[in-house]
Amino acid sequence: MQLQEALAGMPLTYTHICYLTNDMEKSIDALTAMGVKDLKKVEFALGVYVMANLPDGYAAPDAAEAGVLRVEIIEPNANGSFYREHLDRFGQGLHHIGVLVPDFDRYLDAFTTAGCQMLFDMRPKMTKTGDTPASEGAAAAGNYKMCYLDCAAIGFPTIELVGT
């Protein structure tokens, strides 16, 4: 089944892009120089991350639309985490695109049926209080679910699928 057929009529919201770095301070300096304000830096069990809203900009007519684009920058620590392994293997760069969905299980089924592969499943570790490292800073309430999907088989980068 094609992804287009599987997702027909199903809404989703892009929430952020994630960049892995070896030098958080250098990355923060670059974002600040490019006009990013209100950076939120948080230490968590797997390292340090910064979340920021990128300022609206203008490229050319019909080239961009106004809206909020968030960037998450992660500098993983040496604990052998999923992020550290990715950074060591591929170097600095795009790690994932965050997607928020209203029905996690339905979307997960659609993406995996289309060929995406589960990389990291956080569903069993999410709690109502948000006391797991991956849920720090996230809307981890109720039945919050999250996983990473390798979507190379459908010609797309890794997706962080988040929903209820």
Describe what this molecule looks like in 3D:
The protein has four helices and eight strands; from the N terminus they run H-E-H-E-E-E-H-E-H-E-E-E. The chain has 164 residues and is of the alpha+beta class. The protein has a single domain (3-163), classed as 2,3-Dihydroxybiphenyl 1,2-Dioxygenase, domain 1. The chain has an eight-stranded mixed β-sheet. It starts with a helix and ends with a strand. Residues 127-141 have low confidence and may be disordered.
Give the arrangement of secondary structure elements.
Layout: H1 3-6, E1 13-20, H2 24-33, E2 40-44, E3 47-54, E4 69-76, H3 82-90, E5 93-101, H4 104-114, E6 117-121, E7 145-150, E8 159-163
Parallel strand pairs: 1-4, 5-8
Antiparallel strand pairs: 1-5, 2-3, 3-4, 6-7, 7-8
Uncertain segments are 127-141
CATH superfamily (homologous) name: 2,3-Dihydroxybiphenyl 1,2-Dioxygenase, domain 1
Care to count the β-strands? 8
**CATH top level label:** Alpha Beta
Overall pLDDT: 81
Number of domains: 1
Overall outline: globular
Outline:
This protein is of the alpha+beta class and 164 residues long. It contains four helices and eight strands, in the order αβαβββαβαβββ.
Jot down its keywords.
single chain, 164 residues, alpha+beta, eight-stranded mixed sheet
